[in-house]
């Protein structure tokens, strides 16, 4: 890249929280705006998409409508690097709970005029539709990861975002294990690091915002959850939240249908 | 320009995806449309069958800007359904968390999203690069203090993890709270300076006679967390549990968000203006003094001055947070015992952008049979469309770009949260 790279921030089906993380970097946002040309970011600026090429595209949200399925292909074609921000873009998000359910029932439950609603039967990650260069996990993403990602991208190196389990972060933070000591259900052993083991620090079990870590042993964890008294429905619910469509969580939930 | 269409197909500097269209025939506005095309995510459908305890975490994901509001309305609705009365220390800590979200969300909107409309910039970054760096830096520092409340009490600023049906997972340490108090004492002068920044902006001289609705708290406090009653400037005073007897939601073609209307007829307004007008007496003396210095008056009907009201409410939230921290004592257990049972419960609280109503029906085992969520922007949609018709009518001789700018500014008065309402902003002026 020569000169300041051009950045676009795109929104698909989401809550806006991950792109808000950029504005929540209160100490860094003006410096970032100095190093990068924020060419398209509708949440923060009135500047329109000029139809041109972007060096970096940040994509938040999952694909849930026919329009979004088309739009992501155009964004890929006009971007050098595509980076997904957060659980929705990386695994489908909470709205992927509609996958496998009847779309008609869902529309009927919320809307009086189903004929006004244009939606796909599934919520899917960006990588199901186009090639993604890097995925930032989390519901929401970690600000520290976001700043690291921007710094790494500007320097042309790979971002350092550890792929070990939340469980490791928890040990490093020195928390007492909430599952061993108190029998609370915890997804820490199978969940990707990134939050700094926030929930155990607040006396609750991890609920898997960052999605599955590499090669998670979900079956062993489920057995332990059952020993602690969780029934099949509780175990299924535990895996079926913000990363419900991530394959390892999806399969383990299905095993408890 | 006798026949034209003013339209914006993707409204910027709002949270979520919306558009608008103003249709002009023979020099008169004949139609306005505020369109929300944010894709539907079907929360009310997939909440069915989930456990009552999951509602605060799941509904937070409706909105990354105001997750605390979702958590506060949902826990109160669940506690009513389960017949649990939480203790005053639990309530006070929830009010403190809410103060953090009000500061963070109000300052984000006022400084980063709305102020550029008044000063003629595309974004706050352009503002900062063109002589307003001090104001933008002030806002960022101030907003950060709001976020630090949410981070300490809630665990993190977006989608806090510490809120629980029945109370909290863990009560924060008094000594951590006292450190936060130091930041908040510093924020007081920032808060006054920010009110003065907003008060000096140029305001369009326009007013409307809105029907204004907000919650009322049982303890005489400024409306925020605990909406036991719903009141209006037209004399409505009802229990919050009777919401569905007095308000309706309609599904219209242009919007993936249901539109709220009063059964008695008509649009209504929810948000900072109703709170200020209906609960002015409950503001702190310093907030009232700031309002007076800004020339707000006892009553505000000019929607463009909502930016000043947000600044005044933020100042109030800083003071309220200091008071709550000073009174705070650690408590244990952090939550009340919950026994699952069948029941129905409602919860109403004031998100920064307006009233948020939740209602749940639970099965015997405590799982959710039915969920209803009525976000503020859904309620404000009809009012937004009326504003576009009434506030722009005498501006149609101006150049298209200026009309479009004013339309956008008008919509941003609402701090519309479109992900919340669905459920983007896009302006069309159709002149035939």
If you had to describe this structure to a student in words, what would you say it looks like?
The complex is a heterodimer of chains A (257) and B (432). With 257 residues, chain A is an alpha/beta fold. In chain A, 37% of the residues lie in helices and 11% in strands. Chain A folds into 2 domains: 150 residues, 3-Layer(aba) Sandwich (Rossmann fold), CATH 3.40.50; 89 residues, no CATH class. Chain A has a 5-stranded parallel sheet, with helices on both faces. In chain A, β3, α3 and β4 form a beta-alpha-beta unit. In chain A, α11 runs antiparallel to α12. The termini of chain A are far apart. Chain B has one domain: Cytochrome-c3 Hydrogenase, chain B (Orthogonal Bundle). Chain B is globular and about 65 Å long. At the A-B interface, α1, α2, α5 and α9 of A face α1, α4 and α5 of B. Chain B: It comes from Sinisalibacter lacisalsi. Chain B: InterPro entries: Ni-dep_hyd_lsu, Ni-dep_hyd_lsu_Ni_BS, NiFe-Hase_large. Chain B: Keywords: Oxidoreductase. Chain B: This is Ni/Fe hydrogenase subunit alpha. Chain A: This is Oxidoreductase.
Summarize the model shown.
Chain A has 257 residues and is an alpha/beta fold.
């Amino acid at each position: 890249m020569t000169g300041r790279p051009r950045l676009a921030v795109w929104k698909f089906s989401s809550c806006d929280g991950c792109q808000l993380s950029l504005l929540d970097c209160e100490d860094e946002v003006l410096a970032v705006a100095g190093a990068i040309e924020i060419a398209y970011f509708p949440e923060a600026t009135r500047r329109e998409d000029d139809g041109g090429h972007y060096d970096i595209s940040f994509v938040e949200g999952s694909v849930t409508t026919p329009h979004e399925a088309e739009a992501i292909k155009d964004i890929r074609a006009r971007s050098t690097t595509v980076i997904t921000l957060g659980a929705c873009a990386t695994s489908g998000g909470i709205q992927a709970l509609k996958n496998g359910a009847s779309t008609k029932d869902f529309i009927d439950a919320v809307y009086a005029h189903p004929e006004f609603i244009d939606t796909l039967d599934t919520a899917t990650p960006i990588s199901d539709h186009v090639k993604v260069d890097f995925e930032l996990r989390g519901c929401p993403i970690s600000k520290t990861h976001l700043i690291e990602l921007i710094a790494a991208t500007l320097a042309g190196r790979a971002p350092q975002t550890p792929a070990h389990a939340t469980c490791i972060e928890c040990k490093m933070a020195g928390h007492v294990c909430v599952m061993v000591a108190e029998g609370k259900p915890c997804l820490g052993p199978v969940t990707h690091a990134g939050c700094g083991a926030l929930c155990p620090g607040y006396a609750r079990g991890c609920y898997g915002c960052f999605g599955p870590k590499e090669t998670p042993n979900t079956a062993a964890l489920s057995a332990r959850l059952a020993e602690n008294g969780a029934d099949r429905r509780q175990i299924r619910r535990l895996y079926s939240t913000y990363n419900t469509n991530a394959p390892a969580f999806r399969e383990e939930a299905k095993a408890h249908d | 320009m006798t026949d034209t269409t003013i339209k914006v197909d993707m409204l910027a500097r709002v949270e979520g995806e919306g558009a608008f269209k103003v249709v002009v025939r023979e020099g008169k506005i004949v139609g306005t449309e505020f369109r929300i095309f944010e894709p539907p995510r079907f929360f009310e459908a997939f909440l069915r069958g989930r456990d009552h305890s999951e509602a605060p975490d799941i509904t937070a994901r409706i909105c990354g800007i105001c997750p605390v509001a979702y958590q506060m309305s949902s826990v109160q609705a669940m506690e009513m359904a389960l017949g649990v009365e939480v203790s005053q220390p639990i309530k006070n800590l929830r009010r403190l968390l809410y103060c953090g979200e009000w500061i963070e969300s109000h300052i984000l909107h006022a400084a980063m999203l709305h102020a550029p409309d008044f000063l003629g910039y595309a974004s706050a970054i352009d503002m900062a690069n063109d002589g307003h760096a001090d104001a933008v830096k002030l806002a960022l520092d101030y907003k950060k203090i709001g976020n630090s409340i949410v981070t300490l009490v809630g665990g993190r600023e977006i989608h806090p993890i510490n809120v629980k049906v029945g109370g909290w997972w863990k009560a924060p340490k008094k000594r951590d709270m006292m450190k936060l108090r130091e930041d908040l004492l510093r924020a007081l002068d920032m808060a006054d300076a920010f009110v003065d920044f907003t008060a000096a902006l140029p305001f369009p001289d326009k007013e409307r006679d809105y029907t204004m609705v907000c919650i009322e708290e049982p303890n005489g406090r400024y409306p925020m967390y605990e909406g036991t009653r719903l009141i209006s400037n037209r004399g409505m005073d009802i229990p919050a549990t009777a919401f569905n007897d007095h308000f309706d939601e309609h599904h219209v073609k242009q919007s993936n968000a249901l539109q709220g209307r009063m059964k008695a007829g008509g649009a209504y307004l929810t948000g900072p203006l109703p709170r200020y007008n209906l609960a002015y007496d409950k503001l702190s003396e310093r907030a009232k003094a700031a309002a007076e210095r800004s020339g707000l008056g006892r009553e505000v009907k000019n929607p463009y001055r909502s930016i000043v009201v947000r600044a005044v409410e933020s100042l109030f939230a800083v003071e309220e947070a200091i008071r709550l921290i000073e009174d705070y004592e650690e408590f244990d257990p952090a939550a009340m015992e919950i026994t699952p049972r069948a029941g129905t419960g409602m919860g109403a609280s004031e998100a920064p952008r307006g009233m948020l109503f939740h209602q749940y029906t639970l099965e015997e085992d405590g799982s959710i049979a039915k969920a209803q969520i009525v976000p503020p922007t859904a309620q404000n949609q009809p009012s937004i469309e009326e504003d576009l018709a009434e506030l722009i009518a005498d501006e149609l001789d101006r150049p298209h770009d200026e009309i479009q700018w004013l339309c956008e500014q008008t919509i941003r008065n609402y701090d519309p949260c479109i992900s919340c309402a669905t459920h983007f902003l896009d302006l069309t002026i159709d002149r035939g």
